[in-house]
Amino acid sequence: MRYRDRSSSKSCHSLTIFDPFFSNGYCIASTTLLMFFLGCFLTTQQVSASIHEYPSESFIRRSNSYFLHGGSEGLYASKPEVARVDTDAGEDRPLNGKSFIRFESVTFQRSKESAQNKNEMQQKTGLVEAIIVEVKDREKIGGSYLNSDAICCTPELAKDGSCKVGEVIIHHDPDNLNEPKRIQTFFEGQSEEAKMPTEVIEINKTGMYYLYFMFCDPELKGLIISGRTVWRNPEGYLPGKMAPLMTFSGVMSFAYLVLGLFWFLRFVRYWKDVIQLHYHITAVIGLGMCEMALWYFEYANFNATGGRPMGITLWAVTFSAVKKTVSRLLLLVVSMGYGVVRPTLGGITAKVVLLGLTYFVFSEALGLVEHLGNMNDFSGKARLFLVLPVSLLDACFIVWIFSSLFQTLEKLQIKKSMAKFALYRKFTNSLAVSVLLSIAWIGYELYFNAADPLSELWRRAWLIPAFWILLAYILLVVICVLWAPSHNPTRYAYSEETGEDLEEEGISLTSSEVMVAGDLATIVERKERKVSSAVEPHVFGLGEDPEEDKRE
């Protein structure tokens, strides 16, 4: 499957006369990531493809020019010891170690009326230019140095000889006249079509590069472009900002394998003492291992071919959605005290399942849009429509998890189950630390996006999704350590001597109140006074009246 990418970077404002080219007009608020404290999103970041296709695309008016964004990617410099790139498009072997942009079958089609207005005997009757510019050199495009908003050279601007009428204004560095790179294609006579020769532009300097097709002649209005460009890094076709994710996915796949081995050995050793919760933990480990392996192979295939096969990508997205859903459900049921203070979820099982299914549907839809769809097929509002439900559902999980944790801690303290109370206190502390880390990282991400609107820091962009994956893994490790199978399962397993029926104590999904320490201490003190004043304690409880508890 091939991808197109003509959306610019995530700039929210224009910095120079040429900066509107780098602005997509829609800046999706980075604050939507506030809800993702587990951070399992791999690709909330915009995905660039290494093969950019132009299926009959139209040009857009900008100042006194017409332009089409042909793609943007972070490219590493070619390795100097490798022979120069062969311009033969079908020859891939000499390309190893080289970084380049290759134009393949790029054709410009003008209207019949525009062609008939030209002289048939004239050789050059229309000009279209391909401009390759490194983002830091963007001010070299247009008339910013001449105190003009013009992008195309006019007769007035051409008087000093700095540009040619009808061409895009480019201010070359005296020490490097080849940058920004300009490639010109001319129409001849009354021909309606002009073909751009297959050409390879070698990249010898690391940077974020943008490609624009532009023309200045108003008579070419309605021009259509078709064809494609191929972008390649020295090590393969994987975009520069995604390349580290392939290595990271491989490392995380191995990390899940190590965790799975540890868990399997404990599981087999104490298989007679395992509880239902252990099977849920096993499922999450298995899903995480498959997810990371699939993403590694997806990136590897992308790097080798320049395209993303729908099959592998679809499986990777689906496993990610399933794993994120199951991970959140695992945190929720653990926080509820499942298998520790309650044998089953009881009456709230349906609510838990409904929340999980809803989260899976929206998470899967968002993943498919991010990885299989063309980014330009979805406006900012459309993408926001998919991101917001996932964020709201994450908020529901967070509120429900912490509400459940406080209620579980309260019940364990009332029943004086100190071993289980200590276990859950460690789990709560770990979860609290992860939330603090998430908040800090969200702050960094907001700063990163605000300080780098044009993706000039593309070499660090992979750290954003990598952090959330690593944090989710660490939380899973904490659960595996705290709830590891052992010869003494009663230290955390539910026992009828201290258990109680909690089926009617469902926690509202819409509740946003989290019990503070002072309120918890007050309730514990009140309940302890009731216990001490009880005349005849029950066999399976501490003497509380269930109806009285409900009234409180």
UniProtKB/TrEMBL annotation:
The chain crosses the membrane at residues 21-44, 242-265, 277-297, 312-333, 345-362, 382-406, 427-444, 464-484. Keywords: Membrane, Signal, Transmembrane, Transmembrane helix. The keyword Transmembrane helix applies. This is GOST seven transmembrane domain-containing protein. It is found in: Membrane. Residues 530-552 are annotated as: Disordered. GO terms for cellular component: Golgi apparatus; membrane. Pfam families: GOST_TM. It is a multi-pass membrane protein. InterPro entries: GOST_TM, GPR107/GPR108-like. Residues 244-489 form the GOST seven transmembrane domain.
